[in-house]
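Reviewer 2 asked us to include a model.

Predict the structure of this chain.
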Amino acid sequence: MTFQSILSVAAGGALGSVARYLVGIGSGKLSRSDFPWGTLIINVTGSFLIGALAGLIAAKWDLSQTMRMFLTVGICGGFTTFSTFSLDAYYLIERGQTWASSAYVVASVALSVGALIAALRLVRALP
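Predicted model (structure tokens):
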């Protein structure tokens, strides 16, 4: 870990976060619905983007580790951590660990929603 790698992740994260904000606001204005279209669009496009980047980096592009981190951890991570979740689930499947991937997906969704509910209840119970 170098200072340059930390800066590249921070810069990519800033760009990804701004993109997430803009996509979320824009899709909310377009849909005029209570359904979380913005989050769905962000998660799907973020997953597509990290998949495309992972494929290009593995097979086509000769990028430095710093640039790889800028694109994947920084931009994709700032845009959505769901993209990393999707890539991790895929890598487990690719390694023949289908059951582990399924458990990871179910556990991630169930435990994350459960943790959110627990935190909301805890905070609401505070005086």
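The chain has a mean pLDDT of 91. Residues 97-127 form one domain. We have added this to the supplementary material.
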